[in-house]
């Protein structure tokens, strides 16, 4: 078993077009590190200065990891992590 | 070019007017690859701001999953500007993250007149496109 990570369209250039990839780790940070080994460049699109980028939403199963523990959030085999770019903008 | 029904244009404009002076935002889903906006989904602006919008992250997850289950994609992503023209701001361009979507902007700065325009925003490049309104 592994952790399934669902990748949005805009980041599929890092995963050879795959909609979902698998990884392992005990925390979200470790999982992203594991993915980076096979999908170089992906980490930089998710993490900035040791924290999740503000305009990327990462969900563990049904929860936004911002409300869990950010990069420290524990993850386990069988979990699903979903990445969605935030939809945002405005006149300012 | 964006081809969209008058009924959907009316829904976007009504949402933008209702939320004025805050920015309104939402999605129109359509079958993947069809380029046909069909299913109107008004989203909450989690920022409740006259100068900024952001989809609520939990609502976005629910709506994106629903689209996935129905083999749909966001064909249109719309939002309103409430005091400025219906043209993508620097903020709009830097956060645009759906390369396949038509980014629709509506301006509600004039009470009597509606500006309704559509753009592609890919890798920081804005291209305005024609809007064809059909029955």
TrEMBL record, chain A:
<dbReference type="InterPro" id="IPR003749">
    <property type="entry name" value="ThiS/MoaD-like"/>
</dbReference>
<protein>
    <submittedName>
        <fullName>Molybdopterin converting factor small subunit</fullName>
    </submittedName>
</protein>
<dbReference type="InterPro" id="IPR016155">
    <property type="entry name" value="Mopterin_synth/thiamin_S_b"/>
</dbReference>
<dbReference type="InterPro" id="IPR052045">
    <property type="entry name" value="Sulfur_Carrier/Prot_Modifier"/>
</dbReference>
<dbReference type="InterPro" id="IPR012675">
    <property type="entry name" value="Beta-grasp_dom_sf"/>
</dbReference>
<dbReference type="Pfam" id="PF02597">
    <property type="entry name" value="ThiS"/>
</dbReference>
Automatic annotation (TrEMBL), chain B:
<dbReference type="GO" id="GO:0000502">
    <property type="term" value="C:proteasome complex"/>
</dbReference>
<keyword id="KW-0378">Hydrolase</keyword>
<comment type="pathway">
    <text>Amino-acid biosynthesis; L-cysteine biosynthesis.</text>
</comment>
<dbReference type="GO" id="GO:0006508">
    <property type="term" value="P:proteolysis"/>
</dbReference>
<dbReference type="InterPro" id="IPR028090">
    <property type="entry name" value="JAB_dom_prok"/>
</dbReference>
<dbReference type="GO" id="GO:0008235">
    <property type="term" value="F:metalloexopeptidase activity"/>
</dbReference>
<comment type="function">
    <text>Protease that hydrolyzes the covalent CysO-cysteine adduct synthesized by CysM to release L-cysteine and regenerate CysO.</text>
</comment>
<dbReference type="GO" id="GO:0019344">
    <property type="term" value="P:cysteine biosynthetic process"/>
</dbReference>
<dbReference type="InterPro" id="IPR000555">
    <property type="entry name" value="JAMM/MPN+_dom"/>
</dbReference>
<dbReference type="InterPro" id="IPR037518">
    <property type="entry name" value="MPN"/>
</dbReference>
<comment type="similarity">
    <text>Belongs to the peptidase M67A family.</text>
</comment>
<feature type="domain" description="MPN">
    <location>
        <begin position="2"/>
        <end position="125"/>
    </location>
</feature>
<keyword id="KW-0479">Metal-binding</keyword>
<keyword id="KW-0645">Protease</keyword>
<keyword id="KW-0028">Amino-acid biosynthesis</keyword>
<keyword id="KW-0198">Cysteine biosynthesis</keyword>
<keyword id="KW-0482">Metalloprotease</keyword>
<keyword id="KW-0862">Zinc</keyword>
<dbReference type="InterPro" id="IPR051929">
    <property type="entry name" value="VirAsm_ModProt"/>
</dbReference>
<dbReference type="GO" id="GO:0008270">
    <property type="term" value="F:zinc ion binding"/>
</dbReference>
<protein>
    <recommendedName>
        <fullName>CysO-cysteine peptidase</fullName>
        <ecNumber>3.13.1.6</ecNumber>
    </recommendedName>
</protein>
<keyword id="KW-0647">Proteasome</keyword>
